[in-house]
Structures are given as C-alpha cells and as structure tokens.
Design brief:
With 72 residues, the protein is α+β, with helices and mostly antiparallel strands. 29% of the residues lie in helices and 12% in strands. The protein has three helices and two strands; from the N terminus they run αββαα. A two-stranded antiparallel sheet has the order 1-2. β1 and β2 form a beta hairpin. It starts with 13 loop residues before the first helix and ends in a 9-residue tail after the last helix.
C-alpha cells in the first residue's frame, strides 16, 4: 500500500489531490472565502448542479442563483 510516509516529499502535492478528486465518482467541490468562491468542482458535482465548468471561479450564490432563500 502506498502511504504518504513512503512517498518522496515532492510527489504528494496539490495536483495529485485534485486529480484524485476529479476522478472520484462522488460529487466534490472546494470553496474559498466568505462568499464560497468555487475553486474546484468535479464532473459529478457539475452534473448534480446542472452546470458546466464556467461556474468555477464564481461565488456559489452567483453560480447557482436558484439556491437563494433555500435552507441548506
């Protein structure tokens, strides 16, 4: 089994993590800042939202205005 302990320090990086998340069948996204700017969304999440990759880089409420007023 490969673990972080037996990987060279420079081989476990952000790109590897994003590749794993992009390959995941589970809808996954990463947000930043107070207004939840979408920094990453895999295909499963985009499909769940019914959006394309143009939402990446936008605040969540701008990208999905239909969420306004919804309790979540």
């Amino acid at each position: 089994m490969i673990t972080q302990e037996n990987l060279p320090d420079n081989s476990f990086n952000l790109d590897l993590i994003l590749q794993a998340l992009a390959s995941s069948p589970a809808p996954t996204s990463i947000y930043s800042e107070e207004n939840m700017v979408i920094r990453f969304a895999n295909a499963g999440m985009l499909e769940l939202w019914g959006k394309d990759s143009s939402v990446i880089g936008k605040p969540l409420m701008e990208a999905l205005p239909e969420l306004e007023g919804q309790p979540f």
